[in-house]
Amino acid sequence: MVNRSEIMIEAKDLVYHYPGEEEPSSPALSGINLAVNRGEYLALLGPNGSGKTTLMKLFNALLAPSEGEVRVEGISTIDEGRITEIRRYCGMIFQNPDNQLVATTVEEDIAFGLENLALPPAEIRKRVIDVARLLGLEHLLLQPPHLLSGGEKQRVAIAGVLAMRPHCILMDEPTAMLDPAGRRDVLKTVQGLNREQGIAVVHVTHFPEEAVFADRVIILNQGRLVRQGPPENVLSDLPLLHSFGLQGNAVVELAALLREDGFDLPPQLIHSRELVHYLCLSERKS
Amino acid sequence: MFIGTEKLTHTYMPGTPFANEALKEVTFQLKKGEIALVIGPSGSGKSTLIQHLNGLLKPTSGQVLFEGRTVGSDKAELLKLRKRIGLVFQMPEEQFFSETVYDEVAFAPRNLGFAENEVQTSVTGALQEVGLDPDALLDRHPFQLSSGQKRLVALAAVLSFKPEVLILDEPTAGLDSFSRANLFNLLAVLNRNTGLTILICTHHLDEAAALAETVFVLKQGRLVLNGPTSEIFSKREQLHKLGLGLPAVTEIMYWLAEEGLDVRTDIYTLEGARQEINKLKGRQEK
To answer: What is the pLDDT of residues A221-235, one digit of tens each?
Structure first.
């Protein structure tokens, strides 16, 4: 059983400047204190340039903090001898799966990380087949990745990370390049892994509708953590979102307009089903 | 008809075991001054289609038509086509290669043989058209700009040679909601003020649907649906079967209608949804 009160990733007084930055007075990230708990699904929103991707790279030890520290399973990300271990705990999924798939078949691609760990071939084979089965990729194992659909490619990238038995998956706008079916496919896959296998997820997105199923939503703006809380609190706070140049999802935006027009809708509506329910209710009452 | 295709077929790697028919007898037409969307699952042939419209690919069979004439395949004619049809690729800023914003935007006009003073006016003009301040940006390195600004510079780099048709492949991928709304507003203004014909390939309908008069739907290389926006989005079941969706507000209107509320479903904007839902109140009071 996953102990959800246990800390998995922790950032303390984290500051990051990109090297050669013109004004060190405006770092890419500053004053970040944040803990990701075991098994937690965290959604990270913020305008372009707010530091979301930088934070993910710090979590994965691709960048080292300028000040403060990041610990993954208690290991500091500047502990160079243990970086491989950190990356095994925290796998990363990028925006464009084409940048992440390296082998000539799906099978080899999923095995790539395991081969780098120099695991015995029988163990590699077993893990590849296990994750392929879990993600419904078995029939594609011998296909070249570049002939797959976008959603399938992204699932292969997830499979490659999953084969490493990570404790956390970091995803940087994983659906940006996908069609609607691919988007649903990837989100369902990741939600399933989170719920059933207790794998923590940190999901960067520009789409608030992708954040509604998270356990906690974080908003970054100009390198600072400006708000965090359950999705129904954060995603329904339109004045806050608008003040950072963000929009709410269609439900939240529409509900706000309808409240102005005198519709009696509870605050914190973030799901379409809820909005439809309350509108029907108010229609039937009258 | 302004631009279109007639039974356009494209086969990648013909005559090899990897032969792949990416477009199958696609016939479509775009009117001058129109805004149209091309939607379809990944791998349905969208990118192949738009590369034909710009003369980057040659038809395996069938033809591309511009101003009622077949576009020939000799170099001179293709060059003429490329001067009049601007293509903005996915993630265009990944292809930046110049040291300054000026050189980046000036690349196409220089290449097309504009005199240097004409280059200057077209660069400044194009940056102003996309809402950027030339004085502040001309000497900046393109990589120093924000993601939203980079995307606008990439758009200016195409507008700089005053194309009559603008084709965009997933123009808002990776942008935050503010930049997305800004980009679509800009396209609407360009279309209104200059009569620019615009064709947009996208998976994200929330902002795009309200802009378009016509929608083309591709599936496995075939044009399966083609018509006015309201007609295409009235085929909800069929779109879902194709793995495609509707704009989020439209989906909400459908759910309300399914619950028996008397609302229209051809609604693509928040304001439209607001007005339509408000009509329910009016009906009760009568």
So the answer is: 999 999 999 999 999
Closest alpha carbon within chain A to B19: A147
- Smallest Cβ–Cβ distance between B175 and the set A48, A181, A253 belongs to A48
* Domain assignment of residue B261, given as a range: 247-286
Q: What is the pLDDT of residue B1?
A: 78
Confidence of residue B231 (pLDDT cuts 50, 70, 90): very high
3.40.50.300, 1.10.230.10, 3.40.570.10, 3.10.450.50: which CATH number matches A7-248? 3.40.50.300
Contact A276 B43 (CB under 8 A): no
Q: Of B40, B260, B273, which is closest to A254 when you measure between CB atoms? A: B273
Which sign, positive or negative, has the C-alpha torsion B127, B133, B138, B143?
negative
Same structural domain, B253 and B178? no
What is residue A284's predicted lDDT score, i.e. its pLDDT?
78
Complex-level ipTM: 0.87
* A181 chain-B contacts, CB cut-off 8 A: 41, 243-244
**Chain B CB contacts of A19 below 8 Å:** none
The whole-model pTM stands at 0.89
Residues of B in contact with A178 (CB under 8 A): 42, 203
Does one domain contain both B141 and B266?
Answer: no
Q: Which residue has the tokens 């699904």?
A: A41
What residues in A contact B173, CB-CB < 8 Å?
176-177
Are B148 and B279 in a shared domain?
no
Could you tell me if residue B242 is inside a domain? Answer: no
User: How large is the average pLDDT for residues B77-82?
Assistant: 86
For residues B15 and B69, the answer to whether their CB atoms sit within 8 Å is no
**Which are the contacts of A211, defined by CB distance < 8 A and separation ≥ 6?**
A43, A45, A203, A205, A217, A231, A235
Is the domain of B192 the same as that of B268?
no
**How many contacts, defined by CB atoms under 8 Å, are there between A and B?**
109
Give residue B144's pLDDT: 84
Q: What is the pLDDT of residues A89-113, one digit of tens each?
A: 999 998 888 888 889 999 999 999 9
Tally Cβ neighbours within 10 Å of residue A104.
12
- Does B234 map to a domain? no
Q: In the predicted model, what is the mean pLDDT of chain B?
A: 92
Give the domain ranges of chain A.
7-248
